Amino acid sequence: MNDRQLRVAFCGTGRMGAEMVAALAGSGFPVTVWNRTAERARTVAGRTGAEAAPTPAMAAKDADVVFTMLTDGEAVISTLAGPDGILAGAGAGTIVVDCSTIGAGAAAEAAGLCAAAGARFLDCPVSGSTAVAREGRLGLMAGGDPAVINEVRPALEALGTVVHVGPAGAGAAAKVAVNALLHTFSTALAECLVTARRAGVSADALFDVLAAGVLWNRFLGYKRPAFTDPAGTGVAFDLATATKDLRLAVAAGGDTDPARSVVRRVLELHQHALDDGFGDRDMAAMAAWFQAAADPSAAAGDAVPGREPERI
Q1: Comparing C-alpha atoms, which of 87, 94, 212, 79 is closest to residue 151?
Q2: Does the annotation count 175 as an active-site position?
Q3: Please, which residues have CB within 8 angstroms of residue 178's CB and are 6 or more apart in sequence?
Q4: C-alpha torsion 145→147→151→153, nearest 10
Q5: Which range has the worst mean pLDDT, 267-271, 291-295, 299-303?
Q6: Which of 61, 175, 223, 244 is flagged as catalytic?
Q7: Same domain for 207 and 112
């Protein structure tokens, strides 16, 4: 590929995918989008100036790079393969960049499918929220050939900061580790918010304390509203998807003693929350789940309050 503008296809315009498309289109890349729910693709296309395609194959036709941002490994493989899949429309040498969270095993399978079809593959999952994606400030962990990464670096850098973590599969493995840490931290935060609340410390007050101390980080910054004002904050990362990520992490550490695995215990807690009907709520709803357990008289969907309303 020469210095001309890369032609981009993007398959998967869910919450994160839609914001990534906006970042790419906002950086001047011509983008064609596809989504399993066609109306969703048309909405994103209308909002960003992208074109909508009826199939993954049509989206990939004439593209230099095809991004996928899908639910899981099964969705990635099915979108690559088949008569209407990406690889049916992609030309020889097309670079497929998977940004999903699928684990190293599924990434290896996807890489094999691409190689057999004459395409090239990078596993390049991302870290960050929808707000961070919208601003083009994601963290990208890229696995694969450095030369291939460099060919599509302009498009990758429109999404955020790229770190080459190793050969094919390393990006997927790094993302599983990152999300295991993320969900463990977020779950501990949820429990601590509820514990502090019982002693009279509001969620907002505890966040103020965190903001002034060594534990403050970008996650706490952009996730604060989801914990302090859940009713007024949209879902950015639902608990069902978080639980899927934790399953991948537990599978990756398969020989770890279950009695000594923090991540396995966090998965168990998430599974209980799903069983109690919290799956479609934001990951911050673990706080509401802990609150319901601490106060059985409260409704299961009650949120952890922020500041107390002023009493007059």
Answers
A1: 94
A2: yes
A3: 127, 141
A4: 70
A5: 299-303
A6: 175
A7: no
